[in-house]
């Protein structure tokens, strides 16, 4: 980690040195960045705020990024379109939130895929970069990174897939939904904010959530059973409107480019992952909550279902003319290269 920090600092210094020659004459640009979570979530204060601050500093103050949290500018599922259409200049986007829209990148969210979200995010960015040029061609894909990972929080103990049969569960993306469907559940895809309310109203019986978010949104008032394993990690992206980027000076573009790379993809999820792990520790201390481990046999049943999720994904992209097995194997190879595969 020390070598990575030194390398990242050196890159930032290099960008500043390059930028200062032209930055002094650049007019200040204000960019609007939108995301879906509240300000007390680490995505806001531990990920996006430091990234935006670093851009401001590297540009000698000529780029100012105003952050609009908690879906102020629009629903989470609309954030790709908002970046594409210039409603915002920069958007944080959950790449699996719109079923079927971006089939290639969905491979990154197959359950039981990633063991380390920081190194895994570097692999994700490097793997998807060539595909982004066609699948997300109408925006600039700046960085990509995994969230803190999620598990099942329910009104009863869920240990093996059969325990989900007949239950309604909030699913965060297509891949998790397919896992739960194969288990016999009825997955419902909705935003985190809507899901917390839905569980209190009895619309759903369980949630697929990270550890801290289930508490931050109040769903822990109803859900007292928490599976102690990471079933999946969500892939996310920072997207930039192409017109907003093109309006920048060359020096300002250089600063943005220096914040849109594999190094930043690896750095960004660290605070978010730590934040979610803190949530697990809090629930462990609450006597009314049960954070339970599952056996190796039970885990094997979940992983067998995950193979079915991967097979369906491969078949879906094969119908679009892609070799799904090769695409997935390339992702796995990069995860293994960076010691981030499960």
TrEMBL record:
InterPro entries: DctP_fam (IPR018389), TRAP_DctP_sf (IPR038404)
Record Pfam families: DctP (PF03480)
Example of a GO biological process term: transmembrane transport
Protein keywords: Signal
First and last residue of the signal peptide: 1-19
CDD domains in the cross-refs: PBP2_TRAP_Dctp3_4 (cd13665)
PROSITE patterns on file: PROKAR_LIPOPROTEIN
Protein name as annotated: TRAP dicarboxylate transporter subunit DctP
Naturally occurring in which organism (per UniProt): Hoeflea olei
């Amino acid at each position: 980690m020390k070598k990575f920090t030194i390398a990242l600092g050196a890159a930032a210094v290099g960008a500043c040195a390059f930028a200062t020659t032209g930055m002094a004459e650049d007019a200040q640009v204000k960019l609007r960045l939108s995301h879906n979570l509240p300000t007390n979530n680490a995505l806001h204060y531990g990920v996006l705020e430091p990234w935006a601050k670093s851009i401001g500093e590297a540009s000698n103050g000529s780029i100012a990024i105003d952050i609009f949290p908690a879906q102020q500018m629009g629903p989470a599922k609309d954030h790709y379109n908002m970046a594409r259409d210039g409603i915002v200049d920069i958007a944080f986007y959950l790449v699996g939130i719109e079923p079927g829209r971006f089939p290639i990148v969905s491979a990154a969210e197959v359950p039981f895929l990633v063991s380390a979200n920081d190194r895994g995010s570097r692999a994700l960015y490097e793997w998807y970069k060539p595909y982004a040029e066609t699948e997300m061609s109408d925006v600039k894909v700046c960085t990509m990174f995994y969230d803190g990972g999620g598990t099942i929080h329910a009104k009863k103990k869920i240990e093996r897939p059969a325990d989900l049969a007949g239950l309604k569960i909030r699913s965060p993306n297509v891949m998790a939904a397919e896992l739960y469907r194969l288990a016999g559940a009825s997955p419902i895809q909705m935003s985190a904010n809507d899901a917390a309310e839905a569980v209190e109203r009895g619309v759903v019986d369980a949630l697929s959530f990270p550890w801290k978010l289930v508490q931050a949104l109040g769903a822990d008032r109803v859900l007292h059973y928490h599976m102690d394993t990471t079933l999946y990690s969500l892939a996310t992206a920072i997207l930039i409107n192409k017109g907003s980027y093109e309006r920048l000076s060359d020096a300002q573009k250089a600063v943005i480019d220096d914040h849109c790379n594999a190094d930043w993809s690896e750095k960004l999820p660290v605070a978010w992952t730590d934040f979610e792990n803190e949530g697990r520790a809090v629930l462990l201390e609450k006597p009314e909550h049960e954070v339970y481990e599952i056996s190796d046999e039970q885990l094997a049943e979940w992983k067998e279902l995950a193979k079915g999720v991967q097979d369906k994904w491969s078949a879906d992209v094969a119908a679009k003319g892609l070799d799904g097995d090769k695409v997935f194997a390339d992702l796995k190879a990069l995860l293994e290269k960076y010691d981030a595969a499960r």
